[in-house]
Amino acid sequence: MTKYKKTIIIKLDKCLSKRQEFIAFSTRKGLLLMKMRKGISAVLAGVMALAALPVSAMSASAEGAYALGDVDMDGFITGHDAAMVTHALYVDNEALTAEQLRLADVNGDGVVNQSDADWIHENQVYALGQIDVFTMNACTIYEQSYTIARMGAGKARPLEKGVALLENGYYEDALPEVCYNLMDVNGDGVLDNEDVFVTVLDVALRGACEMDTIYFTEKRYDLGEDLVLAWVDADAAGERENVWDQIKAGVEHSIRYGVENA
């Protein structure tokens, strides 16, 4: 064999060797890619499975037993939940906690907006201010709401929050959390005089929600001031303001008298 032929054979051997190495490398790379693809597929499958979970299931795992829409977490979907959402949207953007925001996002689009408040309002069990379902009369509303607004929950006279009511004798039913929430008509989470006046006017003077003193309109809860003022013929702004002040003063006097003479 000549030197030229040996050189060709050696080069061919080297080429074959490199080709075999390349094939082996390609095979290993192919196996590696297959493994990577299988791994990626598994991850994607997991992500897709997570994204396909019902929002209610995810919320339930995060929030326990609270249903979507139960923003105040009192066990009921009520007008107060919708009021809390509108209060957060239009008055105080930081009013809701992260947990409450998750519960408020009833349509699961990741954004809490007016459509969520609308859904809650449409699916409410109790309307805002609807306290007659708990068989409380005007005297109970006067005393409980006024003393809470003045002194805070737990100091209401004669009985504190959640304890059986004393109403013209002994009353066996307890006042549930949802009842206090329904008295918070502006949804700010605090029972104050503004809530007291509107609740008292609604329950005591008109009958709970019969005349829609508290109602849902134009993306806000109307606290009933305009409807109350519509009872009197006072169209001028100054007169309307004076009438409203007189109404509030009269209600406060009546409540105070009832509490002091109970």
TrEMBL record:
One Pfam family in the UniProt entry: Dockerin_1
Protein name, UniProt field: Dockerin type I repeat-containing domain protein
One Gene Ontology term of the molecular function aspect: hydrolase activity, hydrolyzing O-glycosyl compounds
Provenance organism: Ruminococcus callidus ATCC 27760
One GO term of the biological process aspect: polysaccharide catabolic process
Organism superkingdom: Bacteria
Domain (Dockerin): residue spans on this chain: 64-133
Species lineage: Bacteria, Bacillati, Bacillota, Clostridia, Eubacteriales
